[in-house]
Amino acid sequence: MNIGTAARRSALPAKTIRYYEEIGLLRPARADNGYRDYSDADIHRLKFLQRARGLGFSVEECRQLLSLYGDSHRASADVKALAATKLDQIEHKIAELQSLKKTLTHLVRTCHGDARPDCPILDELSGASA
Amino acid sequence: MNIGTAARRSALPAKTIRYYEEIGLLRPARADNGYRDYSDADIHRLKFLQRARGLGFSVEECRQLLSLYGDSHRASADVKALAATKLDQIEHKIAELQSLKKTLTHLVRTCHGDARPDCPILDELSGASA
DNA sequence: GCTTGATCTTCCAGCGACTGGAAGGATTAG
DNA sequence: CTAATCCTTCCAGTCGCTGGAAGATCAAGC
Questions:
Q1: Quick one: pLDDT band at residue A72, thresholds 50, 70, 90?
Q2: Hey, where are the domains in chain B?
């Protein structure tokens, strides 16, 4: 199967698929004409990557997950640990963004937002309150 | 004032300050020895940048904010619009992360996490449920 | 005056995860 | 046979820094 079809089936851009190959995440066969030739197993792997990336795992973490996935003797604890770490990171990021949101919401609310030049947002950024 | 002092006062790494200069966010004077020489106004500008970046504004948005800051005829509505857009983006990002969190939490909870190889997380990623 | 160490300069390279585009070969439809 | 589409490789750019090398300058101590 050519890369265009693989792209459609995995919901990944062809460029990204080539990139994943370049960094060693998969090794598709080659047809006689030099075109990449994807098997169903390759598509499975690409979909796996697509889902894992969508869940916020980095490419390196995806590599680990794929390695665990391919290891029939893996312990589920290893996978759980990876996912739990990622969950932690996501929670931290959420907390950080919520703090930003709070500050920005306050600023937006106190700015009258008309044609006049005085602006509490710029005041805050310029350190007027500090 | 040398860059080291400017770095301490603005809470930005010296490398970052040089980078900001390179992309045209400020133009410090130069002393006879070739060292950058920061004025109090420069420090003010750097602190402004430090705060705005900390609030999640991109460097290009910071450039706009600085331009609005320096324009005494600006309308506060312009600044408010920038901030409101940023707020929207932050809210979207939070929603996205919360959705990720939900999925990952579920996966982590259903994975027994012991030495056995069966793992609902990998099952999900491999598309067992799809 | 000399040495040492901190600080400054420029320049180049790399991070992560792609994405865009150019130049050219292969395939397919009509 | 032609035109359109798809494939190939390679190089460059994105964003916002960050690290390091090589060399100049400065400040402090002896």
A1: confident
A2: 1-74, 76-130
How close A20 gets to chain B, by Cα (Å)?
17
Q: Which nucleotide is nearest to B19 (CA to C1')?
A: D17
DSSP-derived 3-state class of residue B30: strand
Give the CA B35 to C1' D25 distance in Å: 9
Nearest to A79 among B56, B74, B121 (CB): B121
DSSP class of residue A34? Answer: S
Closest to B26 in 3D by CA, of B54, B6, B11: B6
Give the Cα separation of A20 and A38 in Å (integer).
13
Please say whether the beta carbons of B76 and A112 come within 8 A.
yes
Q: What is the mean pLDDT of each run of 10 residues along chain B (130 residues)?
A: 97 97 96 96 97 95 94 91 94 93 92 89 81
d(CA B6, CA B106): 48
**Closest nt to A23 (CA→C1')?**
C17
Q: Which amino acid is at B100?
A: L
Residue A86 with chain B: CB contacts under 8 Å: 104
Q: Which residues fall within 8 angstroms of residue B95, CB to CB, at 6 or more apart?
A: none
Through-space distance between the first and last CA atoms of chain B, rounded to whole angstroms? 62
pLDDT single digits (tens) B7-44:
999 999 999 999 999 999 999 999 999 999 999 999 99
The CATH code belonging to domain B1-74 is: 1.10.1660.10
Q: How many Å apart are B8 CA and D18 C1'?
A: 18
